[in-house]
Fold this sequence. Notes:
Layout: H1 3-16, H2 22-34, H3 43-49, H4 55-68, H5 72-82, H6 88-101, H7 109-115, H8 121-134
Helix pairs in contact: 1-2, 2-4, 3-4, 3-5, 4-6, 5-6, 6-8, 7-8
Amino acid sequence: MDLDRDGMELQLLTMQLQDADVEVRLRAAAALGERGGRARSAVPALVSLLSDGEAAVRRMAALALGDIAARADLAVPELTRALHDADSDVRRRAAQALREYGPEAQAAVPALLAALGDTEGKVRLAAARALRRIRPRPSADAA
């Protein structure tokens, strides 16, 4: 794909994250997530969607942030806050996204440890998997 065209598409998708239509925001976030690290410029806009009024949009924003896994300085604090979202699927997606940041998400460890006590099993499992990636156990060979 031509770099200029790709850049224009990223700009358009990023602008669509602010659209009044929920479906437009959902599709734009999903499309940005599919671009992975190439969509790093959209991280600030995706982070702002973590406080969207629609749970589906917050879930998709967390998923996209995990797929992009860039700009940990912006994303990790907000994904950590999302671990306290009223919607359990948002909490699960936030934990999954933090997992994708790996050791860069070290600041989220206390919140992830707290999420191990979540009322929803899928959130507990996602938190445990994130912790495993963020704080890997030393190998037996290292001892």
